[in-house]
Amino acid sequence: MNCKICLPFLLCLVSSLCVAQLFQPSPHTTQTCQPITLQICKDVAYNMTMLPNLLGHTTQEDAAQAMSQFNPLMKVQCSEDVKLFLCTLHVPLCTPVLNQIIQPCRHLCLSARRGCESLMLKFGFRWPEQMECSRFPQTFCVGENRTESEEKRDELECPTSMRTPFNTNYALLLKNIRLEDCSMSCDEESMIIDNRERSTIRMWIAIWAGISFISSIFTVFTFLIDMNRFNYPVRPILYMAVCYTGISVIYLIGVSNGNNYSCSRMGTSLVVTQRLTNIKCTMMALVFYLCTNGAAAWWLVLCLSWFLTARLQWGNESISSLSIYFHCFGWGIPSILSLGLLITESIDGDVFSGICSVGNLSGHALFHLIVLPQSLSILIGVFLLVAGISSMLHIRSYYKVRQALDEDVNKLEKLMLRISLFAILYAVPTGVGCAIGTYHVMSVSSWLEDWYTRKCHSHHRLSLGFSSMHSCPTVESSSYPDIVILATKYLCQLLVGITSAVWVLSLKTIASYQRMYGKFLGKTSA
C-alpha cells in the first residue's frame, strides 16, 4: 500500500477488527471486495473496492467512464483532495474484514468542493447533487489526516435560508472560505442588527437625507438663477451640490422602501442582493457610486481652480477656458470608475440603510472602490488648498505693506475665510467617512463570522436551514456593528450636501431671489 495512508483510514481498519460483528453483511449480500483496475486510482491509499459504488455503477468500466468527466479538475489540481475524493466515490474502499463500502469523509468532500467548485461554475457546471458534502459521514470514513481546527474550518455550510439558485454567482466569504450560491439572510429574525437599532438608523438617515436634499436643491437653484455671479473658481460647488442631491435622493428612496432594493427573493430565500441580478438595485448603486465619486472629482476641480487663482494669479476668464477639461475630469473619471463597478459586479445591498451600494459584504471591494479614491481626492485637494491659502497669506501681507485699501484687504480676508471654512466642512466629514470606511473594511468579515456563528448556535438553527449534522464554528469573540459609528458614517456622507449651502448664504443671494420674484410678478401681470 501507498505510504500516504491517512490516519482516519488506519483507525477504520483497527476499529473494524473490534466491531466486525456489528458490520457483518446481510446473508443476502453477494458483493465481495475486488482489486481496483481503474488506472487513475491505482496509486491511492487502498487497492480494494466493491461494486455497485456510491453512484450506482455496477462495473469499474462504467465508473471509469463517469469519472473521466472530472479529468480536467484532476489535471489542474484545483484541490489536493479532489482525486482521492473522486476515487472514494467511484471505486470506494472495501476491507476484506467488513466486506462493505467505506464512504469518503465529509471534510474530504468539502476540501475538494472548496478548491474546485469555483472553476466548475466558470464553465457553467454546478457541484453535482449526488456529491453534496452533507451526505457523507464525519466518522468511520476515508479522509486525509488533519487537525481539529482544520476540520472545524471546513464545517461551514450555507443554510437553506441563505441559499440562492444556481448561476446567480452570489457568494459569502466566511473565515476565508467562499460559500458559493449564498448570501446573508434578510429575514426579520436573522438580521445582523435587531429591528429597533435598524429603525433608529433609518430614521436618522431620513432626517439628515431630507436636510441634505433641501440644502443641495437650494444651492443648485441659487446658482441657476444667477449663473453670472458664480464663475470659476467657485462654479464646481454647483456640480458638487448636484451630486449630493443625487446621494440624498438615493438614501430617501432606500429608507422609505424597506428592504425592497437591498434584499431580493431568490427562490425560497430572502437574502441580501448581490451583483447585477436586480436591475433596480444595480441602477441605485450605479447612481450612488457615480454621485459619490463625482462629488470627489469636482472637489478636486474646485481646489485646482482656487490654486490657479491664488498661486498662479489666473483670472476667471483663463480658468473658464479650461471648463471643458474640468467637465471631462469631473464626469469622466467617475464614469470610468462606474464602468469598473459594473465589470467587477461589486454591488450589494446595505441592510442598515436599505440602499444598494458598494462593499457592504466585501471589505476588499469597499477599500478599492470607495476608501482609496476618496482618500486620494482628500489628500490631493488639501495639498492644493494649503498651497493656495499660503499664497493668499503672502498677498495679504503684500497689501498691508503697500498700505492698500482696507476694502481690498477685507475682501481678500473674507474670501480666505470662506474658502477655508468650505474646505474644512468638506474635508473633515469626508476624512471621517474614509476612516469609518477603513474600520468597516477591517471589521466586516468578523461581523459576518460572528453573525453566522450566533445563528448556527441559536435554538432555532434548524428552522434557519442548518443541517442537523452540521458542527458550528467555535464562538471566539463577539463582534457587532457599532450603531454610533454607523450613524456617524451616514451623517458624514450627507453632511457635505448641507454645507454646500454655506457658500450661497449671503445678502447677494437674497437680492437674487428678490430680482427673480420681481421678474416672475412682472410676467404674471403681463
From TrEMBL:
Residues 1-20 form the signal peptide. SMART domains: FRI, Frizzled. The chain crosses the membrane at residues 203-225, 237-256, 286-310, 322-343, 376-395, 415-442, 483-507. SUPFAM superfamilies: Frizzled cysteine-rich domain. It is a multi-pass membrane protein. Disulfide bonds join 33-94, 41-87, 78-116, 109-133. Gene3D superfamilies: Frizzled cysteine-rich domain (1.10.2000.10), Rhodopsin 7-helix transmembrane proteins (1.20.1070.10). InterPro entries: Frizzled/SFRP, Frizzled/Smoothened_7TM, Frizzled_dom, Frizzled_dom_sf, GPCR_2-like_7TM. The keyword Transmembrane helix applies. Residues 201-512 form the G-protein coupled receptors family 2 profile domain. Residues 28-144 form the FZ domain. GO terms for cellular component: plasma membrane. GO terms for molecular function: Wnt receptor activity; Wnt-protein binding. GO terms for biological process: canonical Wnt signaling pathway; non-canonical Wnt signaling pathway. Keywords: Developmental protein, Disulfide bond, Membrane, Receptor, Signal, Transmembrane, Transmembrane helix. It is found in: Membrane. PANTHER family: FRIZZLED (PTHR11309). Belongs to the G-protein coupled receptor Fz/Smo family. This is Frizzled-4.
